[in-house]
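Q: what does this look like with pyridoxal-5'-phosphate bound?
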Amino acid sequence: MRSEDQQVFESAVAEIKGEGRYRVFADILRQRGRFPHARLRLENGGYRDIVVWCSNDYLGQGQNEEVLAAAHAAIDAVGAGAGGTRNISGTTSYHVDLERELAALHGKEAALLFTSGYVSNDATLSTIAKLFPDLWIFSDAQNHASMIEGIKRAKCQKRIFRHNDLQHLEAMLNEAPAGAAKLIAFESVYSMDGDTAPIEAICDIARQYGAMTYLDEVHGVGLYGEKGGGVAERDGVMDRVDFIEGTLAKAFGAMGGYVTGPAAAIDAIRSMAPGFIFTTSLAPSIAAAALESVRIVRACPHMRDRLAERAGRLKEKLKDAGLPVMASSTTHIVPVEVGDAALCKQLSDALLYDHGIYVQPINYPTVPRGTERLRITPSPFHDDALMDALVTALQAVWAQFKMQRVA
Ligand code: PLP
């Protein structure tokens, strides 16, 4: 590499470091059966025990013994990898059964698996745009990067409406020709603020303007609704959303993503999306683990109740301690405001190395500059004693860095 080329890479990183938002990944080992406990590898090669407070394994399903048993059984039965793309020997009964289960979970005709939630959003949105040359996409301003990438690659008209702003959405819909195909893309739970979308109202508007609806339930699936179908199920509007997208990596504790919807649409995406066609399918053991997990989570509403209770309890404890829980959160996600990238990183480091508490800093570009935060995610396994230890540690680092408490 030429030295001037090397320089480009180095200065890109130097700029990020200068802003205090250079990412250093904590090197951890989760401990089987001991969620949320883990071990952190230190610079000297040793390990120390930590408690994870920032995992998206929201229900601890990644450690559920029945889920692990399903993965082990699949490895024993069929081996490690899928051996090919879905089209070339990579479709197994595990994949097919999982797709059926996911379609049923969301009350849709069909489902299609992808290797991640990111790929499912990117591949599906860009493929829908290919199918409709006159498509207009209307995207919530806080949509996840995976939807933004899919929409960017779609060579169609696009409009970004202010977050959850229905009037702005309608104003933008009015810009599009009445006969044009339209699609509104939004999320159910916005994972950095912990707020939710007015799904029913968006569906009403969509009906009025003849728009399709595309809902990302990545942070809602498994966690809301009687069977864990997500916020759309909770709100009784699952059947009014055309496409429901989700992940197997968060509440289900495994890996992979999917989209569900009308059979004809899913068949077209299956037949045309490069992100689906040209990549090896999920390992059977992962599909088996996910399938077992979805079945368990569908049948166990008490997990959802316990998560909601734990999240509510944590918010109370943090507020009582004068810590600035962001008012936006109406869900299981508990963001605590910091407002400065370097400070956010320092707080997170102090929590990890001085108190054995792992909450990673959330900085730009994940959230806008000036809204940096600690994003805390309790689970059914974070008991009162762990919560008290978290609050005590937060109070200590707040004092250490001379941060203001709230009344
Ligand atoms: N959609 C949203 C809203 C997300 O927050 C994420 C990841 O955090 C994704 C999609 C991607 O899902 P996955 O982690 O399965 O790739």
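The chain has a mean pLDDT of 97. Residues 116-118, 121, 144, 146, 187, 191, 216, 218-219, 247, 249, 257 surround pyridoxal-5'-phosphate (CB under 6 Å).
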